[in-house]
Amino acid sequence: MDFPIEAIRGRFPALSLTDGGRRRVYLDNPAGTQVPRAVADAVSRCLLTTNANLGGFFETTVAAQKVVDDAHAAMADFLGAASPQEIIIGANMTTLTYHMSRTLGRAMKSGDEIIVTRMDHEGNVSPWLQLAEDLGLVVRWLAFDERSWQVEEAALSALLSDKTRLVALNYASNLTGSINRVKALTAIAKQAGALVYVDAVQFAPHGLVDVQNLGCDFLACSAYKFFGPHMGILWGRRDVIDALKPYKCRCSSNGLPERFELGTPQIELMAGLTAAVDYFADLGAAAGEGGSRRASIARAFELSIAYENVLAQRLIDRLSDIEGLTIHGITDPSRVGERVPTVSFTVDGMVPETIVGQMNAENIFLWSGHNYAWEIVHQLGIPAEEGVVRIGIAHYNNAAEIDETLESVHRVIAMLRQERS
Prior knowledge:
The protein folds into 2 domains: 5-35 and 295-419, Alpha-Beta Complex (Aspartate Aminotransferase, domain 1); 40-277, Aspartate Aminotransferase, domain 2 (3-Layer(aba) Sandwich). 41% of the residues lie in helices and 14% in strands. It has 14 helices and 15 strands. The protein has helices spanning 5-9, 37-49, 59-79, 93-105, 126-135, 153-159, 182-191, 211-214, 238-241, 267-286, 293-319, 352-361, 374-380, 399-420, and strands spanning 18-19, 22-23, 25-26, 87-90, 113-117, 138-142, 164-170, 195-199, 218-222, 232-236, 325-327, 342-347, 364-365, 367-369, 388-392. The chain has a 7-stranded mixed sheet, sandwiched between helices. Strands 11-12-15-14 form a 4-stranded antiparallel sheet, with helices on one face. α8 links the parallel β8 and β9 (218-222). The mean pLDDT is 98.
């Protein structure tokens, strides 16, 4: 079945907006995607008809509790969790990771070891570094291989010891786009008795997450990266989180997941979160999947992965034709399935911000900088104050937008070279 791109684009109102008659090309997606109308409608409907705090017996509070319950059930389906009780919803991935790091730190002591990678977003690095500083933990750094662009199993094995308490991994890089073999890495870490905490923020928009199959203990993602509202979601394995004592108010619930969700929840955004998950399920159902919501989500990803991979390789191939341009990530067409469609590059003698500024002026939305991939730019020797040009495809982008963007890249680089000569 062909990917129904025009029907999909019609579900995103932002894609039809113009500025002074000029179309918008959204390729800033690794930093946050646009939302289907159904997501915005769900948020609005909740605020207008279900606006109450939780815990009462009157109509709006009962309805609000259902919104909260539905969001946890939706994310359990999205991530393949065993139960909605394993789903913790909060402000964002970074905040949730800081909170969980402090909770896990209660069982750690000076001299214990943790492993962090040089491939992660800072949201899965700084919380652990600061925990180590507070408790006197030993930090082991896990570099990525600059030939495969992935974290290799042998490199992880070499760092593990009987003192390793936690390994923080990322599923896919927000700069290189590379996908790690998380299941294999997790199995190695678990054999050493370590907990595994996975940042799936960049993977979740582009591939089906199956937390039970991965074998990890925690996995975090962000709804606003997969067409939802600004929220973070953390899955925790039931037997692990059930034994934890989180920082919380004395009189708040000790139930799961409530004891990890501090304060009044963002109920209206949870309504939007369910709508975002159902958007994926609707795509799968439209493709003929008649089973469960989880099965429909899986079918949607089958279609979107195949579609995105074609666009990503089209982008990579034509960028590779530009003299002096270096793509930092997998470029081999036979390995396109080992990356998400986020493509970062630098050009000899040019500051990325200058390129991006010119393209933004053409209403092509993309980013420059380190993009919080702080360790990646340092490992690669890229000046952190400059970073890279980053182009990030979502499944609502089309081939015409990619071609237009490529023309802009070629034109802008040629213009800047002429100005410099």
